[in-house]
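Lab channel / #folding
Pinned by the channel admin:
"Please post every new chain as: sequence first, then the structure tokens as a reply. Keep commentary short and put observations after the output so the thread stays searchable."

First post following the new format, from NK:
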Amino acid sequence: MAVQKLPLAKALNESLRTALENDPKVLIMGEDVGKLGGVFRVTDGLQKDFGEDRVIDTPLAESGIVGTAIGLALRGYRPVLEIQFDGFVFPAYDQIVTQLAKMHARALGKIKLPVVVRIPYGGGIGAVEHHSESPEALFAHVAGLKVVSPSTSSDAYWMLQQAIQSDDPVVFFEPKRRYWDKGEVDVDAIPGPLHAARTARPGTDLTLAAYGPMVKVCLEAAAAAEEEGKSVEVLDLRSMSPIDFDAIQRSVEKTGRLVVVHEAPVFYGSGAEVAARITERCFYSLESPVLRVGGFHAPYPPARLEEEYLPGLDRVLDAVDRALAY
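Reply from TO:
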């Protein structure tokens, strides 16, 4: 059947399998992506079925992985890279922001680099230091990179397909604590645009805007608010660069209130850009200031404290109450 119920990680696996089948120029590269199938088993079985020339176990050298991918893309390949954990991407940050992001402009449009950098990100899995970061704003700030994050199995499948087909480099953030959440995937569907926001739940009193791991939390908050007679709309942004400001504006013009939620620290986070733009666009529609909910401006804590660090149901509902109190 075309419609399957899959965990988000398995949806990504099926998407990679489809891409490898459809285009011989698609390659998968990363640490332990082959024989092991990836730390989270997202690439499980792919090397066995497509061979070591297409699913490549690399040395533990993130800068080398990205640099090699840039060279392969220049030769017509479409490399899909796995950075094993979010905090491991920084040795490759220079390659990503000074080479991968700039080559198209540097060559006046003559060179394209269709590279996808997959990064499992965020907390909630009880991991050690450097395994629970949310660095999406660092990449969204860099012109020349597309930055996206799915929150459902269906989006995981289709957004990864679209990222691989893109001629521009895409940083693809995968919410690792949602890897095991199941959802329906229609492999025969016609997907919407990669960077279009999605209304996950309609409402009339307030808009919650989130992406990746926080969409589920916002849906839970909206359900809890409904029990108190509050109608909360949940908007899944899906893309951090570019951002679908038109969709947010339409929602806020209807509800009059906006709360932006993400795992990353509030300070200089993606929510700041959304808040500023929507305040400019919707000044006369807003009934309250745009509020932000996120992590604290502190290094990610040890696992036993992460529940206090991560924005959860209570912090989102507190922001909802504060916005509605104006």
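NK: The longest strand covers residues 258-265.
TO: also worth noting, The chain has a mean pLDDT of 97.
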